[in-house]
UniProtKB/TrEMBL annotation:
This is TetR family transcriptional regulator. Residues 44-63 bind DNA. The keyword Ion transport does not apply. InterPro entries: Homeodomain-like_sf (IPR009057), HTH-type_TetR-like_transc_reg (IPR050109), HTH_TetR (IPR001647), Tet_transcr_reg_TetR-rel_C_sf (IPR036271), TetR_SbtR-like_C (IPR049445). The lineage of its organism: Bacteria, Bacillati, Actinomycetota, Actinomycetes, Micromonosporales. Residues 23-81 form the HTH tetR-type domain. Keywords: DNA-binding, Transcription, Transcription regulation.
Amino acid sequence: MSGYPDKHSGHMSAYPPRRADAQLNRDRIVQKAREMVREPGELKLNAVAKACGIGQGTLYRHFPTREDLLAEVYRHEVDELVAAAPLLLARHQPVEALAAWFDRVAAYARVKRDVFAAVEAGTWRDLAAHSLGPIGEAVELLLSAGRAAGRIRPDAEARDVIVLISWLSRLDDAELDARGARLLAILVDGLRA
């Protein structure tokens, strides 16, 4: 495909790169929507525009529908989660990197739960299918480093970890706050060699 490289996704785009101010607006919209999706009730695009201090036309140029915006919030969260794995491995021993990554998984689980509750079933299925590969690759990166160091059990598979951490997005905030860290610590201990 010919086109322009997208500096955020790495994929080719049919559209030219955004101006710096347009990209700042887009980033601000996504961040504000991420914060607001946790609030009770339906996420309203006009409320997001107002909270960002921009006009509705600017928001609609970036995100024509509410589902477009929520899908981008989710994609952004997945991208940050996946990018964290190699950074954590560069700073920590494998098991500690995995534990720190699981701390990020808890925040991701909240966003996933809130976004999936707000979009139609077809959209969340597409989003889940899109994120499974990159998240699985991040988990495998962390597990492989731990296996190579002799700190993670040799039979640990990324798919098993994904099944276990997926339950976090089914917990409400109170339960996630009360039990999330303990559940992830149990998972880390179960993965140790």
